[in-house]
Amino acid sequence: MGPINKGEVTLGKIQYHLRLKPGDVGKYVLLPGDPARSDRVAKYLEEPQLMAHNREYRTFTGYYKGIKVSVTSTGIGCPSAAIAVEELANIGAEVFIRIGSSAALQPGIALGDLLISCGSMKNEGTSRFYVPDVFPAVPDIEFTSTLIATARRLQTELDFGLHVGICASDDSFYGETPEWIEKLSRLGVINVEMESSAIFTVAYLRRCKAASICAVSGNLVTGEVIYETENTRLVEGWEKEIKVVLEAIYAYERQRQAQA
Description:
It is a single chain. With 260 residues, the protein is of the alpha/beta class. It has a single domain, classed as Rossmann fold, CATH 3.40.50. The protein is built from seven helices and nine strands, in the order αβαβββαββαβαβαβα. Strands 5-8-7-6-9 form a five-stranded mixed barrel. The longest helix is centred in the C-terminal third of the chain and has 28 residues, at 232-259. The chain is globular, with a radius of gyration of 17 Å. The termini are far apart. The mean pLDDT is 97. Its EC number is 2.4.2.3. Belongs to the PNP/UDP phosphorylase family.
């Protein structure tokens, strides 16, 4: 026997980390980092069922306006997020939407605002196992366009600021020095988080679709951050991004059906 191909030997079976099997998840999967936020998504679904909770991966599956939708938490960082996408793709998931928290890097972006990524700067090591550094980390243009359009349609009703641009995916939360933050801001990067570049990369290689929307937890260039008390505006942002994503899934599915 030669070297093992992990993707092939786990395809269509119970997944090692997620403990999920084919049929357990829908085509669309929301990807928060925190397992507790899987529960936040579940309350918006019809007939939600807890499918598995192993390690940092907590998965619910239910329905939104008749569409089978799942949510799986990824934990913090690109390595665990890449595992989630790989194993979800192995059992039939096709569209991955990161719903996260993120720090803003430009003035004028407030706590609780929503950020949609049109590309990610790969300041992490996971993607290097898959592609060269020069290979871009970009979301699916069709689904992201629907996500942006849906966010703009709901912006007044839900009352949030909306920003679209390039984010950075960093490997080290505490390694982000003031000099590093200033450099990213000077490049025009609008926010920094820790998962989207790997999600974009792995999804693309698996011939799947990916997108990312984050609520602003703080602003690293203005110094507006909340670390010790409850960040109520961030919590409100989580709820709003979930509503936007679910409506975007509904709109995207209707578009696909109309084109069929």
